[in-house]
Amino acid sequence: MNFELTVLPLEDVAAEIKVIIIVDSNLKHRFVQDKKLLKKAGFSSGQDETCLLIEKNRLYVGATSLKGADIRRAAANAIKVLKGTKYKSLKVATYTNAGCTYTLRAMVEGFILGAYSFETYKSKKNENKIKHISISLEEYNELEIDIEKASLLVHKAQITADATNFTRDIVNTTPDDCYPDVMASIAEGMAEDTGLRCKILKPKQLRKEKMETLLAVARASRHKPRVIHLTHKPKGAKKVITLVGKGLTYDSGGLSLKPADYMVTMKSDKSGGSAVLGIMKAIAELNLPIEVHGFVGAVENMIGGDAYKPDDVLVAKNGKTIEIRNTDAEGRLVLADVLCYAQQEVKSDYLFDFATLTGASVVAVGHYTSSIMGNNKEVQDLVVKEAHNAGELATALDFNPYLKKTIKSEIADVCNISNTRYGGAITAGQFLSEFVDKKHAEKWAHIDIAGPAFVEHAWGENPFGASGAGVRMMVKLIENLAKDENHH
Ligand code: BES
Ligand code: ZN
Ligand code: ZN
After folding, report:
1. CATH number where 98 lies
2. Rounded-to-integer distance, Cα 280 and Cα 292, Å
């Protein structure tokens, strides 16, 4: 899909179909040529409403407001409606807010995110046919738009949305086609394309690094584990950020086997690690002046004679002992070692981990929202804010000392599950905090993406299946940190 910005008025732009976004039910606006037809069709221009006037080659879509999130969804809806049609090009005006062109970015993201579909395993493909999108800088509110600024926004939108789709593809790929070594190859290939440094740790090095809890989780699988370390290191970078992702290419639950209904979709347990790969891709392509490290623990959690067991006590990389009472709480074990390794390798200003860590997070905040935890309220709030800026939903869940007591163990330093059935997202986060060292304690946030990472229906600009949760929020956060640096 390519985008072209033009200063020509929309009417003079050549394209097979025109898309008109009706903002705030403003059907009286001069852009609306088909008032009578729209009325006849019962189109009242609410968010997510669309009306395709096929004989006129015009498509109307509604948006509640000029907020990025609403425009993004409207653009995604437009492209979805056109999916079954033969149109190959479309044109659209610019919709902006008091001279600020940021909705342009949201619109472009919406087109690319909305056009996504995962068809690897379909014999008959039904891919998006729109190949060319012309955006006229003639503007809905008749404001002046700087073309250079606008093209930069389009460029950023393309990188961010393409990286999100890259993550979606990895997550949607089946467990027998995407196991740890495949994830490592994907990382290597992407690193080669984008100029990132990439180091892959195999079992021998993992043993040398004393990542015994990660190795224990991986033990019963025929697919050997990998730890991926990607580096973006521009000259003169003033800030360092570390990202860590849970990359369970399949989570059967291990000997604490998941019930059949709960095992389905567990190919998505690699969403955190896949998000880290997508974020690194975008950061490299945007060439942001921040040093960013991405670590992924790629492991498959299976059963077998060699499996780790409830009753085992494992020793994590930092020497802490962990009593295993449930082998399905495996993500925190993998992350424990990868967090320790990441902190050993890099001292950073921010440390973020991404994981489909708990079903409890989905119970607490629903399918569409990520839970943000940590020891520092400001860091938590920063993530929530940037998530919203980027069009993702996130909410802070606060730690408390009473829940912390529920992961105490009688026989080891800590237990891998809590002794209460409630507050499971938080107790999992508190377990991870045991593996964040003093230097990073106030710089860390844990992002549980179990809700939004994989949803079995389309929602907003997201398709059935993987959404690429975490990518947009983190790209935005790192971009804004880079901006702050430039101002100093
Ligand atoms: N990968 C799952 C969490 C999950 C559940 C992600 C549903 C996405 C959707 C994780 O490894 C897990 O199984 N967690 C257990 C923890 C429990 C044993 C303490 C859970 O949430 O039930
Ligand atoms: Zn599990
Ligand atoms: Zn898991």
Report:
1. 3.40.220.10
2. 8
pLDDT of 280 above 60:
yes
Structure tokens that stand for 208 in this block: 């040398």
Closest atom of ligand 1 relative to the 268 alpha carbon: 8
> pLDDT digits over 114-162, tens only?
999 999 999 999 889 999 999 998 776 666 778 898 999 999 999 999 9
The dihedral over CA atoms of 247, 253, 259, 261, expressed in degrees to the nearest 10, equals: 10
Work out the average pLDDT over 389-414: 98
Q: Is residue 224 part of a domain?
A: yes
Give the tens place of pLDDT for each residue, 316-327.
Answer: 999 999 999 999
Residue 148: inside a domain: no
Question: Domain limits at 133?
Answer: 2-142
Q: Which of 142, 176, 204 is at the close of a domain? A: 142
Q: Are 354 and 446 in contact (CB under 8 A)?
A: no
Binding-site residues, ligand 1, Cβ < 6 A? 251, 269, 326, 328-331, 356-360, 362, 417, 424, 450
The pLDDT value given to residue 27: 77
Relative to beta strand 132-139, strand 414-415 is: unpaired
**Ligand 1 site-directed mutation target among 252, 263, 303, 328, most atoms within 8 Å of CB:** 328
* Whole-prediction pTM: 0.97
pLDDT confidence of residue 147: 87
Distance from the CA of 206 to the center of ligand 2, in angstroms?
Answer: 21
SS3 90: strand
Out of 27-36, 306-315, 332-341, pick the least confident: 27-36
| Residues 355 and 450 both lie in one domain | yes
Residue 423's Cβ-count burial label (10 Å; 0-12, 13-18, 19+) is buried
Residues in the chain: 488
